[in-house]
Amino acid sequence: EEPMIYFITPTYPRREQVAELTRLGQTLMHVPNLHWIVADDNRLCNAMVMELLKKFGIPFTHISSPMPEMYRKASTVPRGVANRRAALHWIQANVKHGVLYFGDDDNTFDLRLFNEIRSTRKVSMFPVGLIGDYGVSSPVIKDGKVIGFYDSWPAKRTFPVDMAGFAVNIDFFLKHPEASMPYKAGYEEDHFLKSLNISLDDIEPKADGCTQVLVWHTQTTKRPAPTVKIHKQSGTSLKE
Ligand code: UDP
Ligand code: MN
Questions:
Q1: Is the pLDDT of residue 236 over 90?
Q2: CB-based burial, 30-54: b 16+ in 10 Å, e otherwise
Q3: Among residues 20, 116, 188, 189, which one is catalytic?
Q4: Closest C-alpha among 121, 81, 80, 115 to residue 99
Q5: pLDDT of residue 165
Q6: Residue 102 forms beta bridges with which residues?
Q7: Are 80 and 153 in contact (CB under 8 A)?
Q8: What are the φ/ψ torsions at residue 170 (nearest 5 degrees)?
């Protein structure tokens, strides 16, 4: 039987959220043997998100884990960490086999990506498009092995890759109960991968030896905060 893909999506309330999750959900509807873990950066599971998730017909788990207040105030905020960590804990408590993958709600996925990551035995890696100044971030391959990384922000990282650029086998993940993602903006991937205790030799290059881009780090333009006043109406609690 084909291994199940546990697709972890951190998400948070903002005006673009329903649009992002609709596009992503309608991509995931095409993928067999996939379980969607939607990890809400919220005190409680957002009822609107829950109603949306039910409509896709995709097996899903909706969990909530808000970013601790102290990190929200940091100069560089570790986005989506509390909720990804909660998803990892959920996997540790509920799953035995499969493959886990971090798919942000605003990224773009080629359906061929899922065929690639499903056979991950330890950790697989592949290029991500629209990252940083180089426009792509990718492992560098020689003779079928990862020998380094091409990324415009190395930042002394051992594994300078994007969150969308790797997948992890769950049997392998469960063998590393200490594995964790830090609240350290920019270093989440690197620390998580290091906590799995891997070397370059363990990494399985996918996407035709890392020559194909099957996932893009697309970003939706955020509308700036409104400059118009929202007027107080009688009988409502709207503030001026
Ligand atoms: N995210 C979150 N809480 C936040 C900000 C972002 O859960 O306060 C999620 C977001 O929905 C996305 C992921 O974390 O799935 C990465 O955030 P974003 O896309 O804003 O960051 P990027 O890496 O694109 O700069
Ligand atoms: Mn993003």
A1: no
A2: ebeebbbbbbbbbeeebeebeebbe
A3: 189
A4: 121
A5: 99
A6: 8
A7: no
A8: -75, -35
Calpha distance 222→202 (Å, rounded): 39
Q: Across residues 94-107, what is the average pLDDT?
A: 98
Q: Please list the residues that pair with 123 across neighbouring strands.
A: 168, 203
- Output DSSP code: residue 26: H
Residue 1: the pLDDT is 79
Q: Is 202 annotated as a binding residue?
A: no
Q: What pLDDT sits at residue 228?
A: 78
Nearest Cα residue to atom 19 of ligand 1: 106
On the 0-12 / 13-18 / 19+ scale of CB atoms within 10 A, 166 is buried
Catalytic residue at 20? no
pLDDT of residue 239: 53
C-beta 79 within 6 A of ligand 1 = yes
The pTM of this model reads 0.94
* Banded pLDDT at 232 (limits 50, 70, 90): low
Predicted ipTM of the assembly: 0.99
Q: Give per-residue pLDDT as tens, 35-89.
A: 999 999 999 999 999 999 999 999 999 999 999 999 999 999 999 999 999 999 9
DSSP annotation of 236: S
Q: How far is the CA of 23 from the centre of ligand 2 (A)?
A: 14
Residues with CB in 5 Å of ion ligand 2: 104, 106
Which residues share a beta bridge with 5? 34, 99
Length of the chain equals 240
The tokens describing 34, both together, are 């996939």
What are the backbone angles phi and psi of residue 57, rounded to the nearest 5°?
Answer: 75, 15
CB of 118 within 8 A of CB of 25?
no
3-class state of residue 137 by DSSP: strand
